[in-house]
Amino acid sequence: MGGAHSRDELLDSSDSEYEESENEASYEDANEGSSEGRVKTPSSIDDVDAKLKALKLKYSTKNPNPNSVKLYLHNSVDSKWEIYEKLTTYSFVKTCSVEGDSDDDEEEDDDAEKGFWVLKVGSKIRSKVGAEMQLKTLVDQRRVDFIAKGVWAMRFFAEQHYEAFLVQFQNCTFENTYGFEAIDENKLKVYGKDFIGWANPEAADDSMWEDADDSFSKSPASATPVRASQDLREEFEEAANGGIQSLALGALDNSFLVGENGIQVVKNFAQGIHGKGAFVNFGGGSASASKLVQSTPKKTLLMKAETSMLLMSPLNESKLRSTGLHQFDIETGKVVTEWKFGKDGTEITMRDITNDSKSSQLDPSGSTFLGLDDNRLCRWDMRDRHGIVQDLADSNSNMSTPVLNWAQGHQFSRGTNFQCFATTGDGSVVVGSLDGKIRLYSINSMRQAKTAFPGLGSPITHVDVTFDGKWIVGTTDTYLVVICTLFTDKDGNSKTGFAGRMGNRIAAPRLLKLNPLDSHLAGVNNKFHSAQFSWVTENGRQERHIVATVGKFSVIWNFQQVKDGSHECYRSQQGLKSCYCYKIVLRDDSIVESRFMHDNFAVTDSPEAPLVIATQMKVSSFSLSNRR
């Protein structure tokens, strides 16, 4: 499918458009052979209800069972909603198995301590309660949509019954996630007293979100406001020389496609990346270069005004960590050395590397970068302890592999289970963990986090932060979490959580999700990965979008819209505010990476730099333009 399509046909399908199949037997029987001809397929759930009432179907909802619902199934073939059961019931059951006969539930409840909560609806649906269900609430319609081997919707007959379901669902999700009953004492244990607003979002202080919106509207970068009428237009498409594994975007003249066999250099333009330059084959030249053939680099880092690149390969398919990295000289097109990670004479591993700050890859004299492992956060220096640049091993030399200098950092004794990290414009560090926690470290210390945001139950697999450090986006398998780090100190000054402890005036996070239909189309095994803000490296410039990848989808959120508390997405929700307004770019193959180019490449008639989307076989560039 052409990349220019932003999948508006998916986004425009109204949440109230529940169409009943014309072939449904019960509906035809209800017509009682009317000579007026076939009744038109109703276009919405309200039309369905009105039509059924007019036909005097024999069921009553005057005093419904509190657990009674009307159940709908989305027909993916015809792309429409159909009534699956006009009247059925749901229940939450604690069990040890999702699959199985409903008759077993009572027996399984005897062993409830070992079990988990399952939602049962009628005889068809049986699903473990949790984020994987992608439950979407629509309060004004007394309706929830969710995934359970298909896309379903339930509509409730009374508001109090709908609200009771949501409370039960949230409580069961909490217990399935944390292993504790959802009582205030346990929520305090999980979130901490300063973050209790995360457990009770309605009582959280959202003023910081609104204050930040004000600063956004006054910033120099907002002269061209983001409008809903903007379209993505494909500008360039390039075939790759080999399977693309990662994308290294430059802010200057070139960007780089790192593949299975080597590195392809491409040119940066205002419309995207285009034109094949030099191709460096991993198999040629030095012994260090030949090692890259055996293990394709999964992580790349540009340095020294983008004249040098660090390449880190995993030990093997099952071990994502690495004991070292290779340094690639872009100007000569050669891998010039191999470095080892070591501390106090002992070889150690790293799972991730990143630049010292958002703009440090543009520094021509930069020689340091950051490293992360499960229980380590450190700064590496390619100079020795005396500040002298270490000799690079010649391609034909028998010299031992040089060891990077551990310049700063900390090895944590207990399991922090770090997974990913990113840096701000001033070099502050945000770290995401397996338990979902997100920690903020100042530029002065890697030993103790200034702020530690609690997890929401899902591991953080990728994290990014804005240049000014005010906003964080964390990636989980099923949603993105956006956090505001701003707070007001005791002297009335506005600070970020990188600079000081935030106290208890902490805004609740907001979630970015796919609606259940899009999530189901993306595929049950496809997960969100690598959510990132658009790329700026100057004070006063504002990030305008967030982009993430799931399967063949590149998903784009308008960041200003996410921050707007009055946005329509948030009006009919309970719990943490979730934004479902996004654009989708669909590719033919699974996407390796989606990223916005540097803000330098945003042209005057576009509010954003081009979006670059890489699959293993090709890379495409899209411009965000205003409709005329």
The level of helicity is: 10-25%
Q: In which order are the strands of the major sheet placed?
A: 4-3-2-1-7-6-5
Strand content: 35-45%
Q: What's the mean pLDDT score?
A: 81
Walk me through this protein's architecture:
This protein has eleven helices and 40 strands. The model is unreliable at 1-43, 214-229 and 392-399 (pLDDT under 50). With 628 residues, it is an alpha+beta fold. The strands form ten sheets. The chain has a seven-stranded antiparallel β-sheet with strand order 4-3-2-1-7-6-5.
Quickly describe the structure.
The protein has 628 residues and is an alpha+beta fold.
Features:
628 residues; alpha+beta; seven-stranded antiparallel beta sheet; five-stranded mixed beta sheet; 40 strands; disordered N terminus; WD40_repeat_dom_sf
SSE arrangement:
Elements lengths: L7 H4 L13 H6 L14 H10 L13 E8 L4 E16 L9 H5 L6 E6 L3 E4 L7 E3 L4 E5 L3 E6 L2 H20 L5 H8 L4 H4 L7 H12 L11 E10 L4 E5 L5 E6 L2 E8 L2 E10 L5 H8 L4 E5 L4 E5 L11 E6 L4 E7 L1 E2 L2 E2 L4 E3 L13 E6 L2 E6 L23 E7 L6 E6 L5 E5 L4 E4 L9 E3 L8 E4 L5 E5 L4 E5 L1 E3 L5 E3 L13 E3 L3 H7 L5 E6 L11 E6 L2 E6 H5 L14 E2 L3 E4 L4 E6 L14 E5 L2 E9 L2
Parallel strand pairs: 32-36
Antiparallel strand pairs: 1-2, 1-7, 2-3, 3-4, 5-6, 6-7, 8-40, 9-10, 10-11, 11-12, 13-14, 14-15, 15-16, 17-18, 19-20, 20-21, 21-22, 23-24, 24-25, 25-26, 27-28, 28-29, 29-32, 30-31, 33-34, 34-35, 35-37, 38-39, 39-40
